[in-house]
């Protein structure tokens, strides 16, 4: 019996010497320094402590290790078992040692560990149940945990900073998590539709937990560098005084910050690398952004390594979140900690998210494939001349972009997009747009087509943005330009912009590829759901009520989503409106016999026509229509038929006009409109337009030298006398001298949305918006 006992003690001793001591040393504990670690820590049970029941009654005992704080008092005990015994066998011993030390030394000692060298369990007594951990805490960790435990405040009374997250559902989400924390849950899952402010909600939660003393260090995990930079910027905006890692250009991990934002790969490299400075207890809270994707493979090791509160964020609708996600966050299937759906956000009054409209565009080749039956006779002749066998060309529509590419199909999609997209307030350039492409080669081909079809934009309209391009992420890079500058308007992406990247000004999404994941599909749609912030409006997007999805691969049909038809509100581009008013004025002046005015406006119209960009695809296609105007007698007498021709065939071509001073053009349009009202003797309309024009003129900054040069006209044109004696000469002077000054005028103008139906070889095409009952 004694021999067996001695043998057991010897094996346990070896376990301590060869394994446990090393693991303590890895955490920074010097086992030879009794001010840090005491082996066989003596506990005197004769000082009034209730004796344990027989047969274990004794007057003293010793725990295997006591870990001491800087003040010399025990912070934690460690109970050791030999490797052949389960570490769990030491659970009750470790607990009793803690209780006995607390009573004999009148000190707080809530932390105990029990281990067999291979497995280590941590028990925060009275707080959480025991939990298997990957390593011992450092001295700093233990002192921090003890401090937080002692001084944290009840969360029920902690205020939420509503300037960070003040919407009702955001506050409810934060309260739900805080209630779960107080109930001693350690894992939480927050489901919020893309665009409803998951990051802001998380930041407000972190802020409240820090102020209440529950959290000191937070790790925010993302799966891409772009999302890391975006999150860092959000923490900087809302918690500017909390030190963050990494700073710009900073690579080595620092241990003196409060907010850490990292990609999964970076954090995995840190904890698996040599000289890892982060113990498993370094963080108090880990937030996993878009937690449905990257955490089930290698990156789940990060969550296994750290012992901390863990919050998962996802936009995946609750009804399609898989079992693994709920299990990972210890939630019942279908019941996250809190959920707020896209439907709830869109249907709220006022809405929290944008609804969208869908335009399906399916080309003949996509629907019927590329074969002898679908290739035009003209193209067949070209193939024969090149020695190609027509019968050998036979591809299904589903093979496009995978095993075959057709430039004509790509060009058709690009041209349809340029005609149908939501445009900026001037009605010329597309609003901010994301093209979702199949491959990088596909993306490059789309970029080349934009450049070749629309050379007037000098290669700046559409740019490829893929993750392996270093120009994308750097400050001032392509992604930064897309977010913060007028150009590029179109980001052509392969996976990189599918999820996570927040750009409120996105008003067009083009699905130039099929999508087979329902979760990813809604993540991609989420790139357009965010509303604008009225105090942060940008010149290229001053209004956004809805956004447009061009579905070129019938993705909505694939997912059995049935959009219902909706009429789109037309927006006429500014140059088209201006030319339309010129034509109206010419017609009205001719009717009234004012040939001098008609002749003057005809010269203006001819000048405008001469400004049309000859390299534009729209103008090249309209060459025959424009050739009619060069006939000798066309302009001599503009009869009703010719006026109608100008309206129907020539006026729409001005949608191709770009690169002009739109503020000057808008003022000129207003002057032409008031002159037409004056000719037509529409007094009420004249007065309304006059007041509007006077207001715009009055807002010109006379502190600008160029504006001050025309101060006399600016002041005179605001007088009652000026407008009671108005004539064509005065109106022309306003166009000539005041219109160019409007670029100094900052007031925004809000028109509606534009839609055009460009005829081409389209097999299916319809506009619709998703019925709310079909949204997730």
Radius of gyration: 36 Å
Q: Name the shape in a single word.
A: elongated
| Tally of strands | 21
Oligomer: single chain
**SS strand fraction:** 5-15%
Number of helices: 29
- The span between the termini is 68 Å
* Largest sheet geometry: 8 strands, mixed
Please, what is the average pLDDT? 83
| Helix percentage range | 25-40%
Q: What class, by secondary structure content? A: alpha/beta
Strand adjacency order, main sheet: 16-17-15-18-19-14-21-20
List segments where confidence is low: pLDDT < 50 over at least 5 consecutive residues. Answer: 1-10, 48-57, 396-406, 564-568, 747-761, 771-776
Structure description:
The protein is of the alpha/beta class. The chain contains 29 helices and 21 strands. Mean pLDDT is 83; it is low at 1-10, 48-57, 396-406, 564-568, 747-761 and 771-776.
List its salient traits.
single chain, 7-stranded parallel beta sheet, disordered N terminus, alpha/beta, 776 residues
Q: TL;DR?
A:
The protein is of the alpha/beta class and about 775 residues long.
Secondary structure blueprint with pairings:
Elements: H1 2-26, E1 37-44, E2 60-68, E3 74-80, H2 91-105, E4 111-115, E5 120-124, E6 131-133, H3 139-151, H4 168-182, E7 187-192, H5 198-211, E8 218-222, H6 225-238, E9 244-245, E10 259-263, H7 264-272, E11 285-288, H8 300-305, E12 309-314, H9 323-328, E13 338-340, H10 342-347, E14 355-363, H11 364-368, H12 377-385, H13 407-420, E15 432-436, H14 440-453, E16 462-465, H15 470-473, H16 478-484, E17 490-493, E18 506-511, H17 518-525, E19 546-551, H18 555-558, E20 564-565, H19 574-591, H20 595-610, H21 617-621, H22 623-627, H23 640-650, H24 662-679, H25 683-698, H26 705-708, H27 711-716, H28 720-724, H29 728-738, E21 762-769
Parallel strand pairs: 3-4, 7-12, 7-13, 8-10, 8-11, 9-10, 11-12, 14-19, 15-17, 15-18, 16-17, 18-19
Antiparallel strand pairs: 1-2, 2-3, 4-5, 5-6, 14-21, 20-21
């Amino acid at each position: 019996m004694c021999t067996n006992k001695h043998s057991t003690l010897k094996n346990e001793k070896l376990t301590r010497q060869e394994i446990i001591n090393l693991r303590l040393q890895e955490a920074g504990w010097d086992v030879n320094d009794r001010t840090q670690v005491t082996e066989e820590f003596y506990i005197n049970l004769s000082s009034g402590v209730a004796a344990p029941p027989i047969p274990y009654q004794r007057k003293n005992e010793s725990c295997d290790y006591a870990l001491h704080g800087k003040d010399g008092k025990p912070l934690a005990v460690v109970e050791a078992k030999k490797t052949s015994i389960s570490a769990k066998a030491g659970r009750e011993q470790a607990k009793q040692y803690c209780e006995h030390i607390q009573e004999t030394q009148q000190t707080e000692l809530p932390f105990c560990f029990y281990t067999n060298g291979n497995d280590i369990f941590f028990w925060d007594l009275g707080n959480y149940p025991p939990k298997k951990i990957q390593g011992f805490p450092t001295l700093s960790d233990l002192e921090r945990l003890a401090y937080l435990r002692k001084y944290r405040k009840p969360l029920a009374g902690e205020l939420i900073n509503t300037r960070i997250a003040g919407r009702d559902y955001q506050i409810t989400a934060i309260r739900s998590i805080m209630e779960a924390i107080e109930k001693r849950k350690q894992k939480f899952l927050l489901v919020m539709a893309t665009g409803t402010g998951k990051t802001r909600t998380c930041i407000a939660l972190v802020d409240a937990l820090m102020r209440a003393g529950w959290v000191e260090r937070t790790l925010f995990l993302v799966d891409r560098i772009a999302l890391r930079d975006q999150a860092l910027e959000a923490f900087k905006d809302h918690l500017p005084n909390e030190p963050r890692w990494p700073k710009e250009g900073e690579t080595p991990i620092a241990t003196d910050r409060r907010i850490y934002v990292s990609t999964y790969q970076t954090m995995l490299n840190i904890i698996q690398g040599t000289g890892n400075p982060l113990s498993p207890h370094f963080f108090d809270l880990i937030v996993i952004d878009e937690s449905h994707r990257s955490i089930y493979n290698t990156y789940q090791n990060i969550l296994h390594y750290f012992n901390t509160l863990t919050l998962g964020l996802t936009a995946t609708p609750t009804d399609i979140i898989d079992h693994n996600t709920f299990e990972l966050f210890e939630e019942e299937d279908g019941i996250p900690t809190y959920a707020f759906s896209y439907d709830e956000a869109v249907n709220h009054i006022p809405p929290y998210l944008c609804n969208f409209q869908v335009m399906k565009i399916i080309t003949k080749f996509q629907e019927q494939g590329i074969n002898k039956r679908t290739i035009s006779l003209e193209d067949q002749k070209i193939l024969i001349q090149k020695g190609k066998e027509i019968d050998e060309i036979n591809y299904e529509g589903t093979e496009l972009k995978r095993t075959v590419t057709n430039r004509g199909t790509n060009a058709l999609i690009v041209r349809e997009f340029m005609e149908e997209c939501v445009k900026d307030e001037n009605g010329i350039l597309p609003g901010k747009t994301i093209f979702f492409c199949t491959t990088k080669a596909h993306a490059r081909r789309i970029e080349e087509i934009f450049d070749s079809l629309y050379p007037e934009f000098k290669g700046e309209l559409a740019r490829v943005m893929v993750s392996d391009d270093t120009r994308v992420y750097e400050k001032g890079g392509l992604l930064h330009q897309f977010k913060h500058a007028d150009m590029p308007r179109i980001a052509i992406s392969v996976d990189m912009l599918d999820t996570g990247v927040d750009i409120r000004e996105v008003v067009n999404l083009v699905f130039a590829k099929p999508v087979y994941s329902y979760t990813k599909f809604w993540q991609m749609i989420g790139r357009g759901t965010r509303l604008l912030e009225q105090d942060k409006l940008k010149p290229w997007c001053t209004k956004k009520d809805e956004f447009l999805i061009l579905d070129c691969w019938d993705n909505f049909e694939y997912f059995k989503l049935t959009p219902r038809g909706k009429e789109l509100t037309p927006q006429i581009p500014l140059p088209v409106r201006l030319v339309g008013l010129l034509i109206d004025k010419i017609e009205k002046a001719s009717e009234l016999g004012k040939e001098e005015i008609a002749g003057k406006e005809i010269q203006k119209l001819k000048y405008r026509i001469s400004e049309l960009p000859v390299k534009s695809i729209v103008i090249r296609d309209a060459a025959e229509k424009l050739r009619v105007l060069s006939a000798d007698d066309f302009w001599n007498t503009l009869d009703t038929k010719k006026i109608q021709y100008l309206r129907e065939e020539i006026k729409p071509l001005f949608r191709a006009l770009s690169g002009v001073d739109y503020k000057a053009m808008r003022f000129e349009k207003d002057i032409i409109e008031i002159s037409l009202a004056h000719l037509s003797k529409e007094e009420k309309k004249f007065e309304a337009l006059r007041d509007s024009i006077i207001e715009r003129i009055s807002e010109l900054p006379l502190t600008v030298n160029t504006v001050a040069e025309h101060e006399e006209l600016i002041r005179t044109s605001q007088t009652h006398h000026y407008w009671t004696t108005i004539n064509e000469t005065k109106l022309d002077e306003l166009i000539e001298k005041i219109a160019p000054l409007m670029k100094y005028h900052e007031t925004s103008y809000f028109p509606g949305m534009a839609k055009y139906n460009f005829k081409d070889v389209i097999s299916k095409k319809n506009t619709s918006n998703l019925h709310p009952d079909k949204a997730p």
